Automatic annotation (TrEMBL), chain A:
Domain of life: Eukaryota
Listed SMART domains: EFh
This protein's UniProt keywords: Repeat
Source organism of this protein record: Patagioenas fasciata monilis
Domain EF-hand: start-end pairs: 42-77, 120-155
Lineage of the species this protein comes from: Eukaryota, Metazoa, Chordata, Craniata, Vertebrata
Keyword S-adenosyl-L-methionine annotated: no
Protein name: EF-hand calcium-binding domain-containing protein 2 isoform B
Family annotation (SUPFAM superfamilies): EF-hand (SSF47473)
Keyword Disulfide bond attributed: no
UniProtKB/TrEMBL annotation, chain B:
Native source organism of the sequence: Patagioenas fasciata monilis
Keyword set, alphabetical order: Calcium, Hydrolase, Manganese, Metal-binding, Repeat
Name of the protein in question: Serine/threonine-protein phosphatase with EF-hands
UniProt cross-references to SMART domains, sorted A to Z: EFh (SM00054), PP2Ac (SM00156)
Region feature Disordered, mapped onto this chain: 315-358
Entry's EC annotation: 3.1.3.16
Keyword Manganese part of the UniProt annotation: yes
Catalytic activity line of the entry: O-phospho-L-seryl-[protein] + H2O = L-seryl-[protein] + phosphate; O-phospho-L-threonyl-[protein] + H2O = L-threonyl-[protein] + phosphate
First-tier enzyme category under EC: hydrolase
Residue stretches of biased makeup (Low complexity): 340-350
Domain (EF-hand): residue spans on this chain: 491-526, 574-609, 613-648
Family the UniProt entry places it in: Belongs to the PPP phosphatase family.
A molecular function (GO) term: calcium ion binding
One example of a Gene Ontology biological process annotation: detection of stimulus involved in sensory perception
């Protein structure tokens, strides 16, 4: 999926992203002292942009189904439970299935400024796969993967599971070689 | 994605260390996976936004220039008199009277070697089946049959009212299809899933049959054939693309010329006429209004029903909404029109079809071009440059006035093939799947039962038997979208460069992401998420600022022009499409070359209409354009000449 410009090795890209993140972080801290409004304005613009991509009717509302995608595409790592909680907060007043930009903005700006949903480092992801790979053979079988992903944690829906299997599995052996797969997840 | 069904697994009371570790690992992987999918969804969505923004901006250009193109088409008389008969409206009137089905049979012979379907009139279901079979096997219908079919279609359409009234009491369900845009596979799939049109199976096709896709001709032929067989069970509404001027840009004209080398002009001319006779709207059980675009606060169904629809709508003035660049062109064309309508320099007599009144024109433009919005009110459609945006209040008012229940319209791309808006009162139906790119969207049609409750059927034509992964599909869509966008950026290089400079007084070549995004939007006006797109379009320097020039980076220029200078590349990117249309109008015989004769005809036409006196001899001008001195001007030479003039013009202006 690497574009002509984006064909840096994933590690370097990952580092670059972290730098961008930490740049944002330091800006956020400094601004408390100095140009706090500027930084908030900048973050708000980022949020508005992401929001508008999902605002199909151009009427400053998005479906609650898209909130997870918006928050995550802003670089946050909330759990499903945390998204639930977030939705409960913003939807309290009017449970219409849609969320208005203003409401969303006030909640998410705070989340981004507080850096509530910390990014998970990539090496932790590798450890996670290793934890599922009991025999340390470098792969997980399809059956194991389905068992863990739909039975543990915050289980995948059927659709999510199908989507994951269609890209994650080696079609010949029906196994997931997680070192390769991690690269895929990260380059995305 | 985005479903919120998961809950925290709370089994810690029974969990040993291993299972706790597994749960944490699972959550982490699920979390990462969902983040990846969210990013993917974001990329999919912004890619679709890019396609749509560029599409509308392009349509706007086209609408603005339509005056000029019409002027050229109407007056560009090619040197050879054979095709002349079919490009000049006044002469065609005569042709029209004289030609009938029999006449075509006498004039155009179908060789024995032709193995495609053969038609005879009146058409039967067997003919329609033969056509479907032939088109599935990529055969062409012979030009004679095409002309006969168009001629017969026109006769039938002429008898129809502007607004067709249907009733569900005769056929149990009515199927409504939206834009097809030349995607034959979609039409075949609809027929496969939903059955062929018949007395028991009534269809309404809601416009935009042609353009963009490769098989507009085949779609038109199939629809017209079924219209002739079942005039009461297949209904066609006109779309904004059933318009010969729009066809020049969006591919249908090219498709016809390519498929029918000998009789292309004849077919195109007859099509122009047939399109102008397409009905404008359909009403089911007096409750459901079906039309292509939408409505405005002045939409008057009684007026629409009474006007003369075959008047040449497109030739009308379009309100200038955006740049002065278009104003200039418009004025040129407008001036020419005034001259031509006075008859003083009219080359082909004054038998032009009557022009619609401004009111007629606005009423039609509104129903063919408008889009619904969720804000109340009725405002000009800025993105498209024609029609309006109408809010729920406008819909409610029209429903109240005419006692309607539902508005079904098409005209807008929808990722799911349909969308419901205005609190269930307005439905958008879009039937071309994979419209922007393989995998970009589903198509859909509506089944309407006697209770008038709509049911949606979605589908997606896939050329591949293996299901591509979401990643691959998004990747394809994204890279095509970004390619279009980069072309757009390069086409506005000089404006962007000066916009960047405003944010960079010290000339460092670097500006903040915020300023960069503002500069991009101020020049391109595409309403795109520039901050998100930044990583795909421009590089960041180590200090976190955008390296301005990097966004003009890796455009692959597909033109075979040697040693392209940056300014030339920009001009070409921006005007290439317009110039190609002009070139093709001048190049009547579609040879890909403009002969000296063709050029001098056009030149005389321009100079006399614009009142320019050009002192130097014409031959000298042509010779100066003809770089390789082969006596013809090819498209590259034409572009180069345009560029030189454009540059001089800019100097004069400044």
């Amino acid at each position: 999926m690497a574009t002509a410009r984006g064909c840096l090795p994933w590690r370097r890209r990952g580092t670059a992203r972290r730098q961008e993140c930490s740049a944002l972080g330091s800006v956020a801290r400094n601004c408390i002292l100095q140009a706090k409004d500027d930084a908030v304005a900048e973050i708000e613009k980022k949020i508005i942009e992401a929001f508008e991509v999902f605002d199909q009717g151009g009427d400053k509302t998005v479906s609650i189904r898209d909130i997870g995608s918006i928050v995550r595409s802003l670089g946050c790592f909330p759990t499903e439970a945390e998204i639930h909680e977030l939705l409960a907060n913003v939807e309290k007043e009017e449970p219409t299935g849609y969320i208005h930009l203003e409401k969303f903005l006030s909640v998410i700006t705070k989340v981004l400024l507080d850096r509530s949903y910390q990014p998970i480092p990539e090496d932790v992801l590798l450890h996670a796969f290793e934890a599922l790979d009991e025999n340390k053979c470098g792969y997980i079988t399809k059956e194991e993967l389905v068992k863990y992903m739909t039975g543990e944690g915050e289980p995948f829906t059927e659709e999510e599971m199908e989507d994951m299997l269609s890209t994650a599995l080696d079609p010949e052996t029906n196994t997931l070689h997680y070192r390769d797969y991690i690269l895929k997840l990260i380059v995305e | 994605m985005g479903s919120i069904t998961g809950t925290m697994g709370c089994r810690s009371s029974v969990a040993d260390r291993r299972s706790e570790k597994v749960i944490r690992a699972a959550i982490l992987i699920q979390n990462w996976y969902r983040l990846t999918m969210a990013r993917l969804e974001m990329r999919r969505r912004y890619s679709l936004s890019i396609f749509q923004s560029i599409e509308y901006a392009d349509e706007q250009d086209q609408l603005q220039l339509s005056d000029f193109f019409t002027f050229m088409l109407d007056h560009c008389t090619p040197p050879d008199s054979v095709s002349h008969a079919f490009t000049s409206p006044s002469v065609s009137q005569v042709v029209d009277e004289a030609f009938d089905v029999q006449e075509f049979e006498n004039k155009i012979c179908v060789p024995d070697s032709y193995y495609g379907p053969r038609l005879s009139f009146p058409l039967t279901v067997e003919h329609a089946n033969a056509l479907l079979h032939a088109f599935r096997n990529e055969q062409l219908l012979h030009a004679r049959y095409v002309l006969q079919l168009l001629y017969e279609t026109k006769k039938v359409l002429k008898e129809m009212p502007n607004i067709t009234h249907l009733s569900t009491s005769y056929s149990k369900e009515i199927t409504v299809c939206g834009d097809l845009h030349g995607n034959l596979d979609d039409l075949l799939l609809i027929f496969y899933k939903n059955g062929l049109p018949s007395e028991q199976n009534c269809y309404v096709f809601n416009g935009d049959f042609v353009d963009r896709g490769k098989n507009s001709m085949e779609i038109i032929i199939i629809l017209f054939a079924f219209l002739l067989i079942y005039p009461n069970y297949l209904h066609l509404n006109r779309g904004n693309h059933e318009d010969y001027i729009l066809n020049l840009r969006y591919g249908f004209t090219k498709e016809v010329s390519k498929k029918y080398k000998d009789h292309g002009n004849q077919i195109l001319f007859l099509l122009r006429d047939v399109f102008s006779w397409l009905p404008l709207a359909t009403i089911i059980d007096s409750k459901v209004l079906i039309l292509h675009g939408g409505i405005s606060d002045t939409t008057d169904l009684d007026f629409l029903n009474a006007l003369e629809r075959s008047k040449d709508q497109v030739k009308e003035r379009i309100p200038a909404t955006r740049s002065t660049k278009h104003m200039a062109t418009r004025n040129v064309a407008g001036k020419a029109r005034r001259l031509s309508s006075s008859g003083s320099t009219e080359p082909s007599g004054s038998n032009l079809p009557p022009e619609p009144t401004p009111k007629e024109w606005k009423q039609i433009l509104d129903i063919l071009w408008s889009d619904p919005r969720s804000q109340n009110g009725c405002t000009p459609n800025k993105a498209r440059g024609g029609g309006c945006y109408f809010g729920p209040d406008v819909t409610a008012e029209l429903f109240r006035r005419y006692n309607l229940k539902l508005l079904i319209r098409s005209h807008e791309f929808k990722p799911e093939g349909y969308e419901i808006s205005h609190n269930g009162k307005v439905i958008t139906i879009f039937s071309a799947s994979n419209y922007y790119e393989e995998g970009s969207n589903r198509g859909a049609y509506i089944k309407l039962n006697p209770e008038l409750i709509p049911r949606f059927v979605q589908y997606q034509v896939s050329k591949y038997t293996l299901r591509h992964s979401l990643q691959d599909r998004v990747g394809t869509i994204e890279s095509t979208a970004l390619k279009f966008l980069r072309e757009k950026i390069c086409a506005h290089r000089s404006e962007l460069t000066s916009a960047f400079a405003q944010y960079d007084p010290e000339g460092t070549g670097r500006i903040s992401v915020n300023d960069w995004a503002a500069a991009m939007e101020s020049v391109l006006q595409l309403n795109l998420p520039w901050r998100i797109l930044r990583s795909q379009l421009a590089l960041l320097s180590p200090d976190g600022k955008v390296d301005c020039m990097s966004c003009f980076g890796d455009l692959e220029i597909a033109q075979p022009v040697k040693e392209v200078q940056p300014a030339l590349a920009e001009t070409l990117c921006r005007y290439r499409k317009d110039l190609e249309i002009i070139f093709n109008i001048i190049d009547k015989d579609q040879s890909g070359l403009i002969s000296l004769e063709e050029f001098s005809q056009t030149w005389k036409l321009f100079t006399s209409h614009l009142g320019i006196t050009y002192s130097e001899s014409l031959d000298k001008l042509v010779l100066s354009m003809d770089y390789n001195k082969d006596g013809y001007i090819d498209f590259n030479e034409f572009l180069e000449a345009f560029h030189v003039v454009h540059r001089l013009q800019k100097k004069v202006d400044s």
